[in-house]
Structure formats: structure tokens, C-alpha cells
Amino acid sequence: MTSSIAQAPSWQRDVYDVLKSGGIQQIAYVPDAGHSFTINAAIADPDITDVVLTTEEEGVGVVAGAWLGGQRAALLMQSSGVGNCVNMFSLLEMCRFPFLTLVTMRGEYAEFNPWQIPMGSKTQAALELMGITVLRADKPEDVKEVVEAAFDATFLAGERTAVLLGQSLIGRKKWERN
After folding, report:
1. Residue 135, helix vs strand vs coil
2. How many other β-carbons are positioned within 10 Å of the β-carbon of residue 109?
3. pLDDT tens per residue, the chain (178 residues)?
4. Which of 59, 79, 90, 128 fits as disulfide partner to 28, beta carbons 3.0 to 4.6 Å?
5. Where do the structural domains in the chain lie, given as residue ranges?
6. What dotted CATH number matches 2-170?
7. Alpha-carbon distance 59 to 82, whole Å?
8. What is the rounded distance in angstroms from the CA atom of residue 162 to the CA atom of residue 144?
9. What is the pTM of this model?
């Protein structure tokens, strides 16, 4: 992981640092390039349990279960995964569990895959419709402050919060030909 630490953009390190310093003990995720630094750092950290998911809605249950077990958890996903979670978000509303998710966006800045655009353009609305407060960071220098604000809203005020990490943070993606 040493080489990935040196190569990771500072905003990605900021995300992990906020989660770690805030006492996150579980990180649930579907593998995603935008979250790769945080995922790899969690895997390497003996104080954090990394939970790889087969689908994003499982992560809502993981985060709720962690809270019931006395631990703080966060869900990492891509905007396309938000659509998979809508039904499970009712668990958060009905049981009033604190919830923190970090969502890397697709379907916006320089998107090459048209299948990403419909959900990417509706991610914020879908989250808000389900009672989740949405914060957004599009510039590297804003990420730490926005993630800290979401963390505090979640774990100090008991809110359900999502941070949208704009696609421009990650940069252009291109199809790879073999």
C-alpha cells in the first residue's frame, strides 16, 4: 500500500483520515476506483473491519447493524448504487439510525458511459426523497470540510447523511481496450 499512499490524491487521504479520526470501525463497500484509497487503507488497518458487499443495499444493513452493536460505520458506493438502496433506506427512516455514506459520482463530468447518466443525474434527488441530507464536494480543497460536516451531522446529531464526491474529483474515465 505504500506506493498507493504516495500516489493517492490528497482529497482521498482526507476522506480516510476523517473516518479514522472519527472512530469508524467498519467500512462497507462495493469496489470502486474513486474509493480505492479508503478501501485499501481500511483493509490494511487492523482497527477497521472492511466489509466487501455484493450489492450496495447490503451496506445499509451493515451500517445499521454496526450501530446496534455499538460501532460507527460508513458505506462507500458509486452513484449507480444509490438506486439499489432506495428500498433499504426505509430501515433508516423507520428506525432513525445514524447513517453516513460517501458516494462517488458518475454520469456527470466527462462521462463516457451513457448508462451512468440517468442515475447520476437523479442521485441527490433520490437520497433527499428518502430523507437523507446531501452534502457535496467538487473541489479537492473542499472534501475534508464537507466529510467532517457530514460526519458530525451523522454521529453527533444522529442524522442520515450522504456526501456526493463529484466526478471531476476522480477525473475522466475511458474505456480500456485489450
Report:
1. strand
2. 16
3. 444 555 788 999 999 999 999 999 999 999 998 999 999 999 999 999 999 999 999 999 999 999 999 999 999 999 999 999 999 999 999 999 999 999 999 878 777 777 888 788 999 999 999 999 999 999 999 999 999 999 999 999 999 999 999 998 987 666 566 6
4. 59
5. 2-170
6. 3.40.50.970
7. 11
8. 14
9. 0.92
